[in-house]
Amino acid sequence: MVQAYILIQTEVGRARDVAATITDIAGVVRVDAVTGPYDVVVLTEAHTVDELGNMIVSKVQLVPGITRTLTCSVVRL
């Protein structure tokens, strides 16, 4: 299993809508609204890196209200 955190910036006032929409995407483990430079943090998982990338590009980034994402892959040290 491959996991990644997606840090999301949203349009002003859209964090709640974005978080609610992302919750229903397959592969999303957890969604949290946060304070700071990002508005929503999402924990995702998939079987492969390619599957994870496809989910991020074809589903998460297309959610209305998102202005920017940053994906941070989880590594085991």
What would you say this structure looks like, in words?
- The chain has helices at 15-23, 49-60; strands at 2-10, 28-33, 40-46, 66-73.
- 21% of the residues are buried.
- The chain has a single domain (2-73), classed as Lrp/AsnC effector binding domain/regulation of amino acid metabolism (RAM) domain (Alpha-Beta Plaits), CATH 3.30.70.920.
- It has 77 residues and is α+β, with helices and mostly antiparallel strands.
- The two termini are 15 Å apart.
- A four-stranded antiparallel sheet has the order 2-3-1-4.
- The protein is built from two helices and four strands, in the order E-H-E-E-H-E.
- The mean pLDDT is 96.
Helix fraction, binned, reads 25-40%
| Spatial strand order of the main sheet | 2-3-1-4
Radius of gyration: 12 Å
Low-confidence stretches at least 5 residues in length (pLDDT < 50)? Answer: none
The number of helical segments is: 2
Which key terms come to mind for this protein?
77 residues; alpha+beta; Alpha-Beta Plaits; 4-stranded antiparallel sheet; 27% helix; globular; Dimeric_a/b-barrel; AsnC family transcriptional regulator; Tscrpt_reg_AsnC/Lrp_C
